[in-house]
Amino acid sequence: MPTFEYAPAPESRSVVDLRTSYGLFINGEFVDGGGTAFKSISPATEEVLAEVSEATDADVDAAVKAARTAYTRVWSRMSGADRGKYLYRIARILQERAREFAVLESLDNGKPIKESRDVDIPLAAAHFFYNAGWADKLEFASLGPNPRAHGVVGQIIPWNFPMLMLAWKIAPALATGNTVVLKPAETTPLTALLFAEVCQQADLPPGVVNIVTGAGPTGQAIVDHAGIDKLAFTGSTGVGKMIARAIAGTRKKATLELGGKAANIVFDDAPIDQAVEGIVNGIFFNQGHVCCAGSRLLVQESIADEVERRLKRRLDTLRVGDPLDKNTDVGAINSRAQLDRIVALTDAGESEGAERWDNGCELPSKGFWFRPTVFTGVTQTHRIAQEEIFGPVLSVLTFRTPQEAVAKANNTPYGLSAGIWTEKGSRILWMADQLKAGVVWANTFNKFDPTSPFGGYKESGYGREGGRHGLEPYVKTGA
Ligand code: NAI
Ligand code: MG
What is the pLDDT of residue 3? Predict the structure, then answer.
């Protein structure tokens, strides 16, 4: 139980002007989709927020054609400096409307307002600012000779950071001179549709950004469309593999940002209270719906009991509940399907013999919820040590030597991120060198910045997003 109670401090919803239904955003206008409309709900209350169009193959075709025309007639002829002006304008509008975006994101996704307000939306704006700066300097970004756009890019994003993933995708694509057809996830389409309004407000030429809503089949239609030059996908490893198979032998390029099973490694010389905060942030931030989440805690055996004790004491104070309450630490699970996956995997953890603990907090009666959970006594063969749970669930393993920590950390099909907690700089460098992970945090976790590249090894995907490296997949070079 929390050591003391806070009075409710809900953020007002009135800043968000929800329409009852939304169309697709094609060629600068909202149009009805040909498919069966679907509903987006608030996972915290199961309240229907709005009805959203489903894009059929024909709608995706219209979007790709609009993107091609905009590319040929307008966007590819525009100077980098002029493209940059549009990106700066979008970035500033996102800042001006940040509160509206944050509230809508928390409503549609279930994440705590303090995260959408302080992380998702400011970072989304920062990605537009950062990439705006590159638009007229591509020749100086060490991308190779004569960097230029591919043409039309198809982008498919997940539900865990809807607006932030949109920014990761759209900002570098536009900065490098491509036009876009983007599909948000079916449970969280609303901030992407609000972003469509921002494109109109910024007077972005019609067709430069097109947003089509729908589920897997709509994504598949983007992947399969012959008019797409390059694909960018973030989501499950299963769908990523299907995309790689679908485009094999075609001229299409792709970047894939897939799952993870990161090790957060705590040595006996680490500042323990600081490490505990890093462990909590690593796996309970965004309900653990984070591809780079620190879902495996590897703790040195000599301090394992102490870390476990302090961690559980800290987790007792986490506030789980209304995403719009400014004091909430952990919000709702994004969907019933995701909750079912978390339940199935945690049940497997228990039946395979790991010891289960949760913080016992009260959960709301409606919506999708899961208590912050810790498994101790986990071995490497347990499913909860191997598979991505994508929920507020930590698996604790122990080690004795740095070599053993490295071997265990790398014993996963994934390789997206890792964390190291130790006082010794030399050990940080040695470990970072040995770990097969795209991002390695030292004495911190889950820190993101538009200037720094992000991406994986092995089944976590290929290609980098963010930083100068994040521009590379969006350009071709040479004669
Ligand atoms: P998903 O991979 O099905 O969804 C991601 C996006 O891909 C969504 O926009 C979806 O509509 C689209 N999609 C689905 N099938 C497609 C297809 N055949 N062709 C093209 N696009 C398609 O992920 P899902 O089912 O929502 O989550 C399952 C698991 O995936 C989670 O439990 C988690 O472990 C992992 N995941 C990882 C993410 C990451 O950031 N790396 C994000 C979301 C999920
Ligand atoms: Mg929703």
Answer: 60
